[in-house]
């Protein structure tokens, strides 16, 4: 085992970046006294929402159905077969890449009959270059910090023993994006709604590493 002195440090990096995508959760609902009618209405409204989303072409990066439920609603004093209505819900998860259409898409979706929109949640893509740059800067900071410690002792670094990644992700200490929720009942006859102005939220990305370096003997005189 080497007797060379060891210097252990932690390197950190914090980067700010503009979001690359925005996520919306679109809840399509129906409620009818008959189970089949509730399912039929849900199918119609789901198709209307999907058609509207699809009309934005490449501006929408991904559209996914998150789940479907048909739930019987019972009366206050429940008895066998005492069902007052059936409620259907479909969740559509939408990822938008072109923010210039986002405000219009949100308001048009919210203007559909019995539709609720939650979002936007701003985010970076998993393969975003920002994550790589944060990791590289954290490693570089670890080397620079170790060199400063070695220089303070009259020594110099001679090798790397270990480098461990503490993880990479968004700053959990920052407040999460505020959800914009909208709910529409029967459609009105006032024409298309005015697009809402949405300002992208800056993303905070943190990276941290721990590193151990060997060094020459310090000058403690």
Automatic annotation (TrEMBL):
The organism's place on the tree of life at top rank = Bacteria
The cross-references to InterPro entries, in alphabetical order and at most eight, read: 26kDa_periplasmic_antigen (IPR052022), SIMPL/DUF541 (IPR007497)
Q: Which Gene3D superfamilies match?
A: Protein of unknown function (DUF541), domain 1, Protein of unknown function (DUF541), domain 2
Question: Which Pfam families does the UniProt entry name for this protein?
Answer: SIMPL
Please state what the protein is called: SIMPL domain-containing protein
**What is the source species?**
Actinomadura violacea
């Amino acid at each position: 085992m080497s007797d060379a002195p060891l210097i252990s440090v932690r390197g950190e990096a914090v980067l700010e970046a503009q979001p690359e995508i925005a996520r919306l959760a679109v809840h399509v609902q129906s409620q009818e006294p008959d189970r089949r009618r509730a399912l039929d209405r849900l199918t119609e409204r789901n198709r209307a929402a999907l058609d509207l989303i699809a009309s934005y072409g490449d501006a929408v990066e991904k559209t996914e159905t998150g789940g479907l439920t048909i739930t019987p609603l019972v009366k206050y004093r429940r008895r066998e077969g005492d069902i007052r209505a059936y409620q259907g819900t479909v969740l559509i998860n939408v990822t938008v890449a072109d923010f210039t259409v986002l405000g219009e898409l949100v308001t048009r979706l919210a203007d559909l009959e019995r539709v609720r929109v939650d979002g936007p949640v701003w985010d970076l893509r998993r393969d975003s270059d920002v994550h790589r740059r944060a990791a590289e800067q954290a490693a570089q900071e670890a080397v620079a910090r170790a060199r400063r410690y070695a220089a303070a002792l009259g020594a110099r670094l001679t090798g790397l023993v270990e480098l461990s990644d503490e993880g990479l992700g968004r700053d959990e200490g920052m407040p999460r994006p505020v959800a914009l929720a909208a709910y529409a009942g029967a459609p009105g006859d006032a024409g298309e709604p005015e697009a809402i102005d949405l300002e992208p939220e800056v993303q905070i990305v943190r990276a941290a590493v721990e590193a151990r370096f060997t060094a020459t003997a310090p000058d403690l005189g």
